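Sample intake sheet
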Amino acid sequence: MNDTLLIVLYIVIALAVIGALIPVLLKGRRSKGVYGTTRDANDLPAAGGGATLLEDRPDKVSPPVPPAPTAAVQDQDLLDDLAGLETLPAIETPAAVEGRLVRLRARLVRSNSALGKGLLALLSRDNIDENVWDEIEETLLLADVGTAPTLELVDSLRARVKILGSRTPEQVQQMLREELVKLVDPTMDRSLNITRHDDRPAVMMVVGVNGVGKTTTVGKLARVLVAEDKDVLLGAADTFRAAAAEQLATWGQRVGVPTVKSDVDGADPASVAFEAVKAGIEQEVDVVMIDTAGRLQNKVGLMDELGKVKRVIEKQATVDEVLLVLDATTGQNGLAQAKVFADVVNITGIVLTKLDGTAKGGIVVAIQKTLGVPVKLVGLGEGADDLAPFDAEDFVDALLN
């Protein structure tokens, strides 16, 4: 009996052990792949490799459906997309004209006061003989005032000194100021012709030789007009100089002014100018400014082409203003340039750049006397707002400090 119980007990224990081992054996079977090999973690495909563990399963299994993104996730995705987009530059507010004049006058005093100081020192001497008058004449000529204006000024000063007899420093300064103002001529009309017509904008051409800062001047002048609440459009008719159109467009973008330009290098300048004026008429702007290619005054063909640009523009609008940009540091060479340009396109005004970088401010007088054309604008620095209307009395006061 006892033996029978022991046998039954052994059978029960054996069945229990076998029952416990069956799941373990089945699990080991399932862990083998299709080809009968067990895959280690190091055997899994690398991230982004294009493979998945689903390839090792005999039956197709649908991938899990991802949950719908929440509102917060959608907003973050939108911000991530916008982060890569190029942002437009902020529109700048140009400096008011009145504020420029104060700042620029101080610069003019520092650069051109040598002329005024020299004249005051000579005229303040107790005895003014012929040698002194010769020195006065030489001082004026070295400042590029020009021969005829110099002789005119010296004759006027001689007469007044003779009448005065004895002179105090205050009398000398007042006398010299009056004569210089008369020479610079405050009666000349220095206003820009930028008033819109009934059915079309005012049109301005800007001309000059290579290297005087013509395109930069157009950009700075656009800022002056925007500061005066003018609606402006630019025409990039300088199609020969590399990147000239892009440079002009950049100036315009800074103050929210559009630019008409050609995408073809060496395009016909007259055609670009025509399209710019046409766009200005259609958009009803106040002023269209045309930047032209730099010309050498001794290149007849190039000068003829400049005349063509003006004629083509006039097929649909009159050219109200033709500004010649001159570098003040070139002195009398600038006067020779002015004569040739005046014969081709009828100059109406002068823009004198780099006046703060020369002691030859007398070129203002020489140009006006020779051409009968006023200096309307002066540039006195590299800053975006370093361009201002020219004022005869302010100019003389700066000379005399």
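Comment: The first strand starts at residue 202 and ends at 207. Residues 24-66, 72-88 have pLDDT under 50 and may be disordered.
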